[in-house]
Amino acid sequence: MIKRNNNFFGNVDKYIILIYIIIISFGYLNLYSVSCEKSEKQLIWIIFSLACVFIIFIIKPIYYKNLSPYFFLFTLILLIGVLFFGKNINGSRSWYVIGPINFQPAEFAKISTSLIIAYLLCKYNVKIYNNKIWIYTLLIILIPTILIFFQPDPGTSIVFISFILTLYREGLSILFIIYLLILMIIFTLSLNISYYIIISFLLLIFSIIFLIMKRHVLKNLLVYIFCFLTCFLSILIFPFFYKNVVKQHHKDRINILFKNEFDRQYRENIGYNLLYSKTAIGSGKLFGKGYRKGIITKGKFVPEQDTDYIFCTVGEEWGFVGSVILILFYLLFISRIYCLSERQKNVFVRIFGFSVGNIFLIHFLINIGMVMGLFPTIGIVLPFFSYGGSSFWSFTILLFILIRLDAFDKTQLI
After folding, report:
1. With 90 as the cut, is the pLDDT of residue 328 above it?
2. CA distance 65 to 134
3. Helix H or strand E encompassing 267
C-alpha cells in the first residue's frame, strides 16, 4: 500500500494532471482559432486559475469538510441576490458585474452543492438507509436548481441532475429514481398539451400500482404520500409553468429538434445556430480542413462559437479523427476522476469525487449532444475548452479540491 503524506504538492495524481493540461492546451488552440481577442482573455483566466490551485493546496483539507455548510449558505445568498442585483445578459439575470469583472454565482453553486452533499451524507452515515436524509439531500439539490432556473438559466440548472447520480451511487432507493423519472416525463409531456393529461394520469396510476406492489409500504407511507402528491400537483402545475414561466427562446430551442432543416424559417431564424454548427462539423470530413483554415469558423457563421458551440470548430478544422481524439481524452479524464473517487476510504472524499465526475460527465454529454443536434441548445459549456472565466475557475476548483483531498492523509478528515 502506498503511504500518503501531508507534503504541499506530494502524491498528486500525475495522470489526471497530464490529461488536464492536454485538454486545456487543445482548448486554447481552438479558442485562438475562433477569436484571438477572447483567447488573450482566456489566457489571463488560465494564469489566475494557477493562483486558485495554489490557494487550494494551502488550505487544510479538513476545512473543505467543516466549512461546507457555510459555503453553501453563502452561495444561496448570492443566487438570491443575483435575481435582484444581477446584470441581464442575453435575457438571463445570472451575472454580478463588479467593475471589469463579471462572475456567475451559479458556477460556484456546483462546488458548494458538491461539498454539502458529501458533508451531509458523511455526517449521517451513508450506509444508513434513512429516507429523511435522502429527502433533505434532494431538497438541498432542489433549492439552488430552482433559483438558477428562475434567472432563467435552464442549462446550468439541468447540470444539478448530476447529483442524483451521486445519490444513486451511494444507495438512493430505486423508488426515488423512478419517482424523479416520472416527474421528468410529465414535464416533457407538458410540451405537447394534446396528449399531456391522458398520459400523465396513466403515469400516476402506474406509480401508485408500483408502490402498492412494494413491501413495507406502511413503514414508508409518508414518503410515498409525498411522492404521490408531487406527481399529482406536477400534472396541474407544469403546463402553466411551461406556458407562463419558460421564455419563448427556450421553447424554440426545445422545439427546434423536431423541425425540418429545409424549412425557410428554420434556416433563417431559430435553426440558424444548429444548422451551421452541424454544417461545420460535417464539412471537416475525416481529417478536417486544417488549423485556422475553417471557412465557417473564420467567417463567424456560428454565434457563440467561442463558448457553447466551440466543438464545431474541432469538427471543421480537425475532422472526425480530431473530434474522436478529443472525446477519448475527455472520457479518460472523467474515468480517472471516477477512479480516484472509487479508491477513497473516506466517505466525504468519495462522495465529493463522484459529484465532481458526474458534473464533468453531464457537461461533456450535453454540450457535445447539443452541438450535434441531439439535445436542445441550453447554454452548457465544454469544460476547460469553452471561453469563460467563471466556468473555467469553477471547474478548476472542483478538480483540484478533489486532487488535494486525494493526495492528503484522509484519516485527518474524520
Report:
1. yes
2. 19
3. helix 264-268
Residue 257 to residue 200: CA distance in whole angstroms: 23
Mean pLDDT of 67-74: 93
Euclidean distance between CA atoms 226 and 228, whole angstroms: 5
- Helix 193-213, helix 221-244: angle, nearest 10: 170
Distances (CA, A) of 129 to 50, 125, 133: 40, 9, 8
347: Cβ contacts below 8 Å, ≥ 6 apart:
118, 121, 122, 125, 126
Burial 363-388 (b: 16+ CB within 10 A, else e): bbbbbbebbbbebbbbbbbbbbbbbb
Stated as kind and residue range, the H or E segment containing 369 is helix 347-371
**Cell numbers at residue 155, please?**
442549462
DSSP structure string for 143-186: HHHHHHHTTT-HHHHHHTTHHHHHHHHTT--HHHHHHHHHHHHH
Q: Distance of CA 4 to CAs 60, 63, 287, Å?
A: 15, 19, 44
The three three-digit cell numbers of residue 215, written as one number: 413491501
Predicted confidence band at 218 (pLDDT cuts at 50, 70, 90)?
Answer: very low
Q: Which residue in the block uniquely carries the three cell numbers 450535434? A: 372
Q: What is the mean pLDDT of the chain?
A: 79
pTM of the predicted model over 0.70: yes
Q: What string of DSSP letters covers 201-222?
A: HHHHHHHHHHHHHSS-TGGGHH
Q: How far apart are alpha carbons 353 and 344 in whole angstroms? A: 9
> Taking 50 as the threshold, does the pLDDT of residue 29 lie above it?
yes
DSSP three-state, residue 96: strand
Residue type, 370: M
Give helix then strand counts, H and E, for the chain: 18, 3
Bridge partners of residue 87, in order along the sequence = 95
The CA-based diameter of the chain, rounded to the nearest angstrom, is: 66
Q: Measured between alpha carbons, how far is 103 from 105 in angstroms, rounded to an integer? A: 6
* Contact call for residues 56 and 401 (beta carbons, < 8 A): yes
A 10 A CB-CB count for 43 gives 13
Q: Please indicate whether residue 82 or residue 213 has the higher confidence score (pLDDT).
A: 82
Cα separation, 200 vs 377, whole angstroms: 26
Share of the chain above pLDDT 90, in %: 29
Q: Which residues of 321-339 are buried (b: 16+ CB within 10 A; e: fewer)?
A: ebbeebeeebebbbebbbe
Q: Going by DSSP bridges, is the β-strand pair 92-98/87-89 parallel, antiparallel, or unpaired?
A: antiparallel
